[in-house]
Every structure is written in structure tokens, then in C-alpha cells.
Amino acid sequence: MKDSCGGTSAPPPLLRLPSLPCSLGNGSCDTFQKFQKYAEAGYATTAMKRTLAIIGAGRVGRELGRRLAGHGWRVGAVVTGSRATARSAIRAIGGGTPYARLVPEALDAGLILITTPDDAIASVARRLARLSSGSLEGRVALHTSGALASEVLEPLARRGAAIGSMHPMQTFARGRRTNLAGICFAIEGRPAARRLAVRLARQMGGTPVVIDGHAKAAYHAAGAFASPQLLALLEAAVRLLEGSGFRRRQAMQALLPLARQTVANYERLGPRAAWTGPVSRGDAATIRRHERELRKWPAEYLAAYRALTRLQRQLLSGRR
To answer: In terms of pTM, does the model score above 0.90?
Structure first.
């Protein structure tokens, strides 16, 4: 069967055990009906346990979905903002049923993985809760935001789902597969959600680290310093060299080995032994020459240089 987006439809609903007439009149009928109820619940739970729905299958959702599918998870609903991106996502993941909007089928999975941008997570949780016609007990809902705690999924918790968050501390570039070996996965949430997230992180080759939800913003700010802010510094350095007569390729060739060696020294020797430059040696005259030159550039260059100079001094002082 084909769904509205042209993908393969989800499997048919779970079969229910047949209702048998009971004429024993001695309590055996009640016993059988209880057995029937528990057997159906157990069958449904077992079938649902390793099924996965992905909401917002962009770069992170596709990479995690592809890896989990490779570890035996059956991918069900894959929901994105358009039919084209939904179809593209299931091709990248290697399975799933594409949808261009939130649908009740997303709640058929044992694991609901929400990989949308941060500002959409609360809305997705509310809309999924409204789509639920009954309890979500036995299901786990995880989001992958680095800055938000699991409480943003509270509407799903009120329906019975175990809620949590699982964020890989890694950058996901467009069109490139991402190395997750040894990568930190920050995990928090309700106990059942934390336990599952820890298992998922290990399945994908990562290192799970359970943190407090209140620490998420500081945790994510740390990642911002180490990745996008680092890129801003490197690009600013490249443009400074271009302004000095370097071609862009020459500037990259000059600066990237310096950056790599700096990081290698930091990893091998620690921060104090790896630190070089005018701040570490107290060379105020060189700092003033830098500042005079940077006044010729957009104001953000000098402001960033001064802020980072102050930060270096604070860090080298040993104060927190």
C-alpha cells in the first residue's frame, strides 16, 4: 500500500486475540478475559518496543535514524515539512513512511524522536498530544535539542509517555555523514527515557553522559564556543590575511595547520602549557599594535579581539 506521500504504508494494525464465549459460570471466564487483556498488551508492547518515529528529519534526524535503522530499529513515520523532504529523508535513513504533516501514525512507535529546531519542539509536543486518542504509556519521547530540557515535552508526559532529551555534541554538516564514535551524548529526563537514551547512544558508538536538565543551556553554550564561535574566529582570521594580500586558499593553508596544532597541544599538554601569544607572555605593546590595525576593520573585529583578550587574561589567572 502507498501513503499520501508515495512511500510504503505502515504495517496493518496488531491483531487482537479472539473474544471467546464463556459459559463456565465459575470465574474462569473472568480469568480468561484478564489473560486476554494482558496478552494483548504484552504483544503490542513487544511489537512496538523497537519501532521509531522521527519528527523533523533534517540533518540530525536523518543521521540518527540511519544509524538506529542499522541497529535493528524499524522506522515508521518520518515527518517533515513537505512531501519532497519527507521522501528524501526516508531515502537517507533507509526506511520509513513519509508524511508532510503530523499524523496519528507517529504515535504508533515505541520511540518518538523529535529532531526539529528548538523553537518548534513545544508546538510539536502539544500537537502530538492532541492527536493521541488514548494513553501513551509504554512509549518514550526524546528530543535532540542541546539547549532545552525534557520538560518542553510535558504535554506528552501528561498522556503517559516517558520524556527525555538526547543531544549529540557534534556538528552535522549538510551532505556529509557524521562521525559519532566516542561523541558525547548529553541525556536527561524521566528514568525510562534516560535508560533508553543511554542504550541508543551506545548503539550509535557514542558516550552517554547524564546531566541535569537545568544545565542544558550552559552545556549547549560550551558547544557553541567550540564549534560555531570557533568558525567565526577562523573566518575572521582568513579575511584578515586576505586583507593583507593572501589569496583565500593561501590564508586557509596558513591558518588551519596552526589551529590544528593548537588543538592538538591543548589535548596533549593541557591549557596552560598549550597557551602561546601576546596575552600569555604579557606583551602589551603587541596587543596595542593589533588593536590599532583592527580599527580599520568592521567594529565587530576589534570588539571580539578585546573581549577574547579579556577572556584569556581571566582564564590564565585561574579564576572562575
So the answer is: no
Neighbours of 81 (CB within 10 A): 14
Q: Which among 85, 110, 99 is positioned nearest to 161, based on CA atoms?
A: 110
User: Residue 22: pLDDT band by 50, 70, 90 thresholds?
Assistant: very low
Give the domain extent around 86: 28-212
CATH of the domain at 35: 3.40.50.720
Q: Are residues 189 and 279 in the same domain?
A: no
| Mean of pLDDT over the chain | 88
CB 213 within 8 Å of CB 222: no
183 & 241 share domain: no
Cell of 89: 529523508
Q: What is the pLDDT of residues 205-259, one digit of tens each?
A: 999 999 999 999 999 999 999 999 999 999 999 999 999 999 999 999 999 999 9
